Amino acid sequence: MGEIEFVKPMDIERRSFAIITQLLEEQGRETEGVNAPVLKRVIHTTADFDYAENLVFSPGAVETGLAALREGCDIVTDTQMARAGINKAALQRLGGSVHCFMSDPDVAELARERGVTRAAVCMEKAAALQRPCIYAIGNAPTALLRLREMLDAGELDSCPPVLIIGVPVGFVNVVESKELILETRVPHIVARGRKGGSNVAAAICNALLYQLGRP
Amino acid sequence: MGEIEFVKPMDIERRSFAIITQLLEEQGRETEGVNAPVLKRVIHTTADFDYAENLVFSPGAVETGLAALREGCDIVTDTQMARAGINKAALQRLGGSVHCFMSDPDVAELARERGVTRAAVCMEKAAALQRPCIYAIGNAPTALLRLREMLDAGELDSCPPVLIIGVPVGFVNVVESKELILETRVPHIVARGRKGGSNVAAAICNALLYQLGRP
C-alpha cells in the first residue's frame, strides 16, 4: 500500500519546514534572518524554490508588518481565495480583520460605470476605511497599479498602507505592476516576475501572523 | 509611471492563454488535445511551467469529468481555499455544488476521537453522500491515502469517485500519496511530485467547468 509513513498532523509542518530549510541551505540561501519565515512559508505553500530568488523585501518590511499586526491592523485582499486562506482566528486575536470587497455589488457597479476593474475600486474602498491596513494582492495587477496612482497623487497620505504584499500571478501587466510597487518607499514584499497568487498572498500574511502566536 | 498597458479585463485572460500556448509550443508541448485546457489553466494560475511535466491524466479522465459535470455531479474538496476558488455559479448552472467538510464540528470531533486527520474523515463523509462526486484534493495527502484505502476495501463500490484530482502540495507524504492514486484505475488528474495546492485544485475544476459554459 505504498510507503506512507504516519506522522502526527502537528509534526508534519515542523518536518516540512526542516526539509525546506535544509534545501535552502544546500542552495546557499539565508535561512535565519527576519525574512526567512516568510520565504519558507511561501515555499511550504507552493513547493517552488524559485521564490528564494523572486521574493523581494524592502528593508524593515517584515518588522513593520509585525508591529502593525500586533497593534490590530486589518488586511485587505483582492481575492476570496486569499481571504479564505488567511488565518482569521490568528488575526482576530490581535484585533484585526480581513476585508475583500471584490464581490460587493457597489464595487461591481462603480467599476462598470467608470470602465475600470473591480480590483481598482476595491483599493479605493479600502483606502476609505482610513484604518491601518496591510494590502495583500494575490491576483489583480490593476490593484497594484491603482495603489501606485493613489500613492503618487498623495491620496493615501492621511492613512498610508502599512505594507503592500504584491504577489499577483500572470502573463499580462503582472511583472510591470509589481515593478511599480518595488519603486515605491512603502514597505513591501513583492514576488518579482510572473509568479505569485492568492495562496502566496495568504501564506505571507500567515507567516507574519504565526510569529505573533497561533490559535 | 511604468509601462502598464490598458487591456480590457475580458481580454486579459485570452491574451494570457495565447502567451501560455506559445510558450508551451516553444517547449514542444501538446497544446491542442483534450487535456491542454486543464494544463493551460493550471499554468495561468501558477505561472509555473513545471506542470507541463508534472500533470498526469489517466486516459479519458477529462472526458469523464466533463460528462459527469454535465449531468450535475458535485465537487468535494479538502480546503476552504479551493472551495472559494471553484466557480460555483458555473457548477450550479449544471446542477452541482461544492462540499468542503473541513470546518464541520462533527468532523473535528471524529478525527480527534479516532486519532486520524480531519481530511480523512471528510473523505468518509463525502462517500456517505452517495452522490457522484469529483474529489478535488489540494492540501491533504491523508485525504488521498484514505480514498485509496476505501477504494481497496471496496467501500466506494456503490458510488465510486467520478474523478480524483490529486494535487496536494508539500514535503511530507505528499509525493507518495499521489503515487497511490496514480496506481488506481479511478479516473485521475494528478500533479506528480511535490507541487500542487488549493489554487491548482480549483484551477483544474474551473478548466473543466469553463468548457461547459461560463456564467
What's the number of extended β-strand segments of chain A?
Answer: 6
Characterize the quaternary organization of these chains. homodimer
Briefly note the structural class of the backbone of chain A: alpha/beta
**Lateral strand order in the biggest sheet of chain A:** 1-6-5-4-2-3
Low-confidence segments of chain A, ≥5 residues, pLDDT <50? none
Mean pLDDT of chain A: 95
Distance between the termini of chain A: 35 Å
Please work out how many helical segments of chain A DSSP would assign. 11
Largest sheet of chain A: 6 strands, mixed
Largest inter-chain contact set: A-B, 49 and 49 residues
Order of helices and strands of chain A: HHHEHEHHEHHEHEHEH
Beta-strand proportion of chain A: 5-15%
| Helical percentage of chain A | 40-55%
- Taking Cα atoms only, what radius of gyration of chain A do you get, to the nearest Å? 17 Å
**Overall spatial form of chain A:** globular
Features:
globular; alpha/beta; six-stranded mixed beta sheet; homodimer; 215 residues; 10% strand
Structural account:
The structure is a homodimer of 215-residue chains. In chain A, β4, α9 and β5 (163-166) form a beta-alpha-beta unit. Chain A is of the alpha/beta class. Helices cover 51% and strands 10% of the residues of chain A. Chain A has a 6-stranded mixed beta sheet with strand order 1-6-5-4-2-3, sandwiched between helices. The longest helix of chain A is centred in the N-terminal third of the chain and has 18 residues, at 9-26. Chain A has helices spanning 9-26, 36-46, 51-54, 61-70, 80-85, 88-93, 105-114, 118-128, 141-152, 174-182, 198-210, and strands at 55-57, 74-77, 98-99, 133-137, 163-166, 188-191. Chain A is built from 11 helices and 6 strands. At the A-B interface, α1, α2, α5, α9 and α10 of A face α1, α2, α5, α9 and α10 of B.
